[in-house]
Amino acid sequence: MILISHRGNINGKIPDKENNLEYINNALHLGYDVEIDVWVEDNKLWLGHDFPQYNVDKVWLFSHKNNLWIHCKNIEAINYFSTKLKSFNYFWHDNDTLTLTSKNHIWAYPGKQPIKNSIAVMPELNNDDISQCLGVCSDYIQNYKK
Length: 146
Hints:
Blueprint: E1 2-6, H1 21-29, E2 33-41, E3 44-47, E4 54-55, H2 58-63, E5 68-72, H3 75-83, E6 90-91, E7 98-100, E8 106-108, E9 118-121, E10 135-138
Parallel strand pairs: 1-2, 1-10, 2-5, 5-6, 8-9, 9-10
Antiparallel strand pairs: 2-3, 3-4, 7-8
């Protein structure tokens, strides 16, 4: 099962640290994949959930490419990845039941499980059945490590 830290969280939400490079690096170092929120403004890449907060460069992105799940937060981000960084795993969603990432992974909104071979997002919120899932994305991802 793929274990994905939500914005760098391992054992609960810490909003002040989410999407911070040091926080994300810690989750990556512990062996988790990480879902990050990416914005593009003036052709620059930024991390942050509700707004662009932390500048990030392509070197860092490429060095962790295989372990990042990139949630594009604005249209400019989707356009940037779909034209300049096509090889990354990125997606856009809002309140959809599910979306497909650029690598054809099913990213399922909380409470929508079971969906075979999907990524269950925050399954603990609704006690979702994850038995058919390919992976889990959670603020409490260490609880899913076996």
